[in-house]
Design brief:
- There is one protein chain.
- The N and C termini lie far apart (about 40 Å).
- The radius of gyration is 19 Å and the shape is elongated.
- The protein is mainly alpha-helical.
- The chain has helices at about 1-30, 50-65, 70-75, 80-90, 90-100, 110-140.
- Helix 1 (about 1-30) crosses helix 3 (about 70-75), helix 3 (about 70-75) packs across helix 4 and helix 5 (about 90-100) packs antiparallel against helix 6.
């Protein structure tokens, strides 16, 4: 069972790093014709599907990150992996914040601005929601007194 906890935390870290790498590609390199004649014609990655692709990306990322918390929690008790799992969620948030506040010239259209704000929202929900779930799941007692209801 310990292996499942460790692999879930590792997959969570890899998903955060993958999202950060996708952000770097999207904000710095997308639209620069890196793939020559294939650029913008690779099925799911065409320009007119940006909103739909971001919705799926946000849904898959956030769903896995928040659902994996109960499974990764036993692996995170007193371990470096648990701390690194929590800190990995900062990476995609930091990249999006750097783009919006430091490199806004990369956001040449309203679609890119919307994408940046959606990514900031999703990664902030992952970060703060993850910490809230961890705190809630790590509590041992409930403060319910007989007369409090």
């Amino acid at each position: 069972m310990r292996k499942l906890h460790t692999s879930t935390a590792s997959l969570s870290i890899l998903m955060a790093i993958a999202l950060a790498l996708w952000e770097v590609y999207f904000f710095w390199f997308a639209g620069k014709r890196l793939f020559g004649s294939l650029d913008g014609s690779l099925g799911l990655f065409t320009g007119d599907r940006l909103g739909f692709n971001l919705a799926w990306l946000a849904a898959i990322y956030l769903t896995f990150q928040l659902i994996s918390i109960p499974f990764a929690l036993p692996a995170s008790r007193g371990r470096f992996l648990g701390v690194f799992d929590g800190m990995a969620s900062l990476l995609p948030l930091a990249i999006a914040l750097i783009v919006v506040f430091g490199k806004s010239q990369l956001l040449g259209s309203w679609e890119r601005w919307e994408a940046a704000f959606l990514i900031i929202f999703v990664t902030a929900v992952d970060l703060f929601g993850g910490y809230a779930f961890n705190i809630a799941l790590s509590r041992r007692t409930l403060d319910v007194a007989p007369g409090s209801i």
